[in-house]
User: What shape does this take?
Amino acid sequence: MIIGKKRILLGSAGLLILIMAALMFSGCSTPPNAGPPTEVPGPATTDAEPNFVNTPDAPVTINSLRVQPAPMYYDVFIDYTNNTAKMISQTEFCVLLFDENGNPVFDTHAQGSAKFINSKKQLVPYGSMSGRWLVQLGTQKVKGHLVRVTFFDGTTWEDPGLVEWVEAEIAKY
Assistant: This one.
């Protein structure tokens, strides 16, 4: 009698764990062959001006920057290219977050509306890469800028105009 109750209890607990795992993974996963979306619905695609700045002598060029709603956080996709003959070991971007009305969105992890995004993926010379990062719910528009590039040999490039760019964008609001 006790063994039968244990089997029912263990079976129920196992079934509950399977259901919870299925719900968690089905709502938050991306199919393995699904790349970043080519179009984002809503206000994020209606901006006439580009939402990123490329510094002329920068070793990395941002090709596209977009935001997409997701269940718990929103996703920011950045496509970028290495413009040098050197291997890159780390790339850092600054992304400013805005709501549908263009007001800054406070990101709880970044403790502000400027979120620094760091990619530690190695990027081959003249190669391109795409990355996906999480940002605060309610982010409908983003503006981005390259901050720093670290090369495989240990040398770094930093954008001298980053502070001026952030100040100019903040002055608009």
Remarks:
- The beta strands are 52-53, 60-68, 74-82, 88-98, 114-119, 128-135, 141-151, 156-158.
